[in-house]
Please model this.
Amino acid sequence: MSATADHRPRYVIGVTGLNAIDSPGPGVAVIRALRESPDFAVRIIGLSYEALEPGIYMHELVDKTYQLPYPSAGTQVLLERLGEIHEREGLDVIIPNFDAELPNFVRLASRLAALGIRTFLPTLEQLEARDKLNLRAFGEAHGLLVPRQRLLHRADELAAAADELGYPLVVKGRFYDAVVAHTLEQARKAFHQISAKWGLPVIAQEFVQGHEINVAALGDGTGRTLSAVPMRKLYITDKGKAWAGITLEDETLLQLARRFVAGTQWRGGCELEIMRTADGRPYILEINPRFPAWIYLTAAAGQNQPAALVRLALGLPTEPWTQYAVGRMFIRYAWDLITDNHEFHQISAFGEL
Model:
């Protein structure tokens, strides 16, 4: 940490999730929010896994990028790589933004802190409680509406699941991807595609008809909700991702987020994916244990959740927000980012740019 000419503290922050594609990671949105904080200036260190993650080449947002080993490589290899980066950059905070990488970062949190690198992450127990595999049981324990589901280890279990849950049937991967199947043949195809990509078990979930609403929330680890901003999807891609959305005024959704944070003592950012039925019942479809790709909308609405998370990580006082701008919209768009071939070869061959 250092001071800038305008006397604000300057933090070096590592951010993952730079894949701003048709199913974008949260990293670029997190970085945009951090750069707009009035409380501090930042030097952003991008942490990538693939050489074609667009955020690597967004030099107006990312000051320097280093490649990380894949999560499957384990914690020791990750720690060694982060140690190398820290020696060169002096990292103050790291914000991981992918579900699959979170367990490794959580396991390393104390060792990273010993190096002077702060994080603010849920515990392994919190990750497990809201896992898609356990979400139905979690909902029953906390009085939350969650669609019925079955865990599938073989494709021949689909018929029984469909008999119980009916069609359409949602076939989901443990970390990502979901397909709405209208026939057994479609369900089997989805099972094989998802299991090949994300492993077993695959989740068969009851389809709930309604309006899709997401809530981005930030918990301080003591049960207190510092921020909660609901957003209704206005345009949805074929992958189920919001391509446009609008902030809502809805106390029921805010209370739902507060109940989740209080019930789990949630630590860090999260996203509740909700389907509200025609009669107003909010079903929780998923609880993602990190910021969503649309997190920049929280900053635009007056509750800069990424900036608040940095303050929490650094142990700075952080008070809850009580208001946000209702009717604030985001509309995502595609943009052809032009770069030079040597930059691609630099990150591919040397693991940094």
Notes: The chain is about 30% helix and 25% strand. The chain has a mean pLDDT of 94.
